[in-house]
Amino acid sequence: MAHTDRGRLVADAATAYARVSRLLDPLRLHVWEEMGITFPQLRILFLVRRDPGTDLRTLAQRLDVGTSAASQQVDRLVDRGLVLRSEDPDDRRRIQLALTEKGEEAVESISSASREYLHTLFERFSAEQLRDLIAAFDTVVAAAAESPVPHLTREHQPTA
Predict the structure, then answer these.
(1) Number of Cβ atoms within 10 Å of the Cβ of 96
(2) What is the spatial distance between Cα 116 and Cα 111, in angstroms, rounded to a whole number?
(3) pLDDT band, residue 156 (cuts 50/70/90)
(4) Residue among 85, 111, 102, 97 at smallest CA distance from 32
(5) Residue 77's Cα: distance from chain center in Å?
(6) For position 38, what pLDDT does the model report?
(7) In 10 A of CB 100, how many CB atoms?
(8) Would you say the C-alpha torsion 18, 109, 51, 156 has a positive or negative sign?
(9) How many beta carbons lie within 10 A of that of residue 128, not counting itself?
(10) Residue 148's pLDDT is what?
């Protein structure tokens, strides 16, 4: 295969992946809007869900925003009853974050809406197509594990 053919295949694969990943955007946006959650707030909910007890400074670093910006978004989530702030018993200066029951339900409803939609789509696939798709996804995940995500400049990422 010529180099340009491979380059075209890589570009086409990236385009196809982007098209597939965008399929969930309207569904997710609808659920987020129904809940009144912004994208930065959603990122916080998923990060706190993945790492309960994380502190505000760590959260701000993961979001690549200042502590003040992260704190403002967390304040809004606390006000809505989705996140709980508490002092670390070992270091009172450290503020720990956790999802409330309502926050867990919000994250789960977003996740389950996506899963249900994908389940509906994948029901149309043959067993062989599903096995091929799973193998392709596994390959993407393995490649991603070996290739760190490049640091994005602020102009290329959502802000909190």
Answers:
(1) 18
(2) 9
(3) very low
(4) 111
(5) 17
(6) 86
(7) 15
(8) positive
(9) 8
(10) 76
